[in-house]
Known about the structure:
- By secondary structure, the protein is of the alpha/beta class.
- It has a single domain (6-206), classed as Aldolase class I (TIM Barrel), CATH 3.20.20.
- The chain has ten helices and nine strands.
- The chain has helices at residues 6-10, 27-36, 51-61, 75-84, 96-101, 116-124, 140-148, 167-171, 187-192, 195-206, and strands at 15-19, 41-45, 66-70, 88-90, 109-110, 112-113, 129-132, 155-156, 179-181.
- The strands form two sheets. The protein has a six-stranded parallel beta sheet with strand order 5-4-3-2-1-9. Strands 6-7-8 form a three-stranded parallel beta sheet.
- The two termini are 25 Å apart.
- The model has no long low-confidence stretch (mean pLDDT 97).
Amino acid sequence: MFQSSLDTILKAAPVMPVMIIEDLDSAVPLAKALVAGGLVVLEITLRTTVALDAIRRIAGEVEGAIVGVGTVTSPKLVEKAAEAGAVFAVSPGAPLAFVQAAPTLPIPLLPGVATPSEVMTLLDHGFRYAKLFPAEVVGGVAMLKALHSPLPGLTFCPTGGIDLAKAPSYLALPNVVCVGGSWMAPKELVSAGNWAEIETRAHAAAALRK
């Protein structure tokens, strides 16, 4: 099954840091701080010009890191990220052509959904995992509770607007495997190179384990 490796990846930590890396020199120390804090699954978003290089460096230099790529919008971007060392891909949406291409991609895709119809489409195409995005905007915990009874076949990594205080309510749900967030490594801490504080925040997030 084309998403089978996501079983292990998404269960490796309760929180997946969503990282926007603007300074390439910060990539490795940031990843090391997060991994040292127990957050080993890292989503490096393709929102900056150095993102692919950051994936390459983290994959090659940070022991224990499970490196993924985020904000992928086409199969070609998935292929480029896989070549750089990413082992999974995350998309903000689930356009049909992308969904249909998923079984042929070099790494598993975690597509984003925001509606029951999108969930049904993924189930029809053999998906078991998806990202609810933007989670807080589209209903958050209440949305996931509502989806579980009629559509129990999909398990989610909700992302978008979730912080340390909100995460436990998500992780308590039967159809949530982990959550995505950026609160443990905000821009100001990364810019200041405050890796100790980032590691401390990562420890707190890792302690939320389901």
